[in-house]
Amino acid sequence: MKQTKYLVSILSLMVILSVSLLNGCGTDDTSTSSNSAGGWPPTFTFKTGATFVYSTDSLLAAGGSLPTHRISTDMVQNLTVISGQNCYPFLGTTVDSNTQQSTPDLYYVRYDPAGYYYQYGIKRLIDTNQSPTWDLIGDFTKTRKTTYTIGNINYTISLPGYGSVIFTGPLTGQIADSTTITTTGPTAQTIYCYRIEMNANVSGTYSGQPVDASIFLDYYVGYTVAAYPNNPVGLVELRSRPFAFNFAHVPVIYEPGFDRKLFSSQ
User: Fold this and answer.
1) How many domains, the chain?
2) Burial class of 244 by CB neighbour count within 10 A (0 to 12, 13 to 18, 19+)
3) Integer distance in angstroms from the first to the last C-alpha of the chain?
4) 136 in a domain, yes or no?
5) Interval 154-206: pLDDT, tens
6) Pairing mode, strands 80-82 and 148-159
7) Residues 6+ apart with CB under 8 A from 51
8) Which of 9, 108, 219, 252 to pair with 21, CA 20 to 30 A apart?
9) Cut 0.90: pTM above it
10) How far apart are CA 7 and CA 155, in angstroms?
């Protein structure tokens, strides 16, 4: 999970999810229409042994995408306890077909049926120095497109040509809508999911001038739905949009994004 060179592998869900994650080839085949199959709040019933295979593309700052030749395979493990909470580990590996290098993947999720979806350590996607905590990814107790706070970012990075800058700011989320995506594998499968939009608005100063960036992550999570018993439950796509660091309100450093998208599941 290191798709962003300067943002501390900002996208190391990338580190938590463990790759450089995500998408399918530059085309956005995500439906923009709502569907109500998930209910409100939805149900998430994780299935031990379920397997998720993802492909990953790099999203270029100038537009378009490039395949990364990375395939990730994660499997849902037995219920365990992390930091006092019952949760499900997603354990697997990411393999680069060019180098044959293998990287372990491990992350933890849990769901409170009252409507709260958590992932352990999601803030480390942006700030790898933070100690992992149970971070609220999806707050389904709020109406759609209502912003809620996930946490606060506070970290230092070195920007080429500008030196070290301390960035601080909130990491927020909102349930954008219920939608569908199509898997990238040879057998196309429609996946019912919710898109959760996360945004880190971070800022600092350099030589008395403001430096800032707005970093967006789109987190698509499949849910349990009786009408589609084979619908995968868990992360089905994670997309980091390209972004820019601004100096004195002028874009100066452009960063790529990534798209880790479900290839197949079983």
Assistant:
1) 1
2) middle
3) 24
4) yes
5) 888 888 888 899 999 999 999 998 999 999 999 999 999 999 999 999 999 99
6) unpaired
7) 73, 74, 75, 76, 265, 266
8) 252
9) no
10) 10
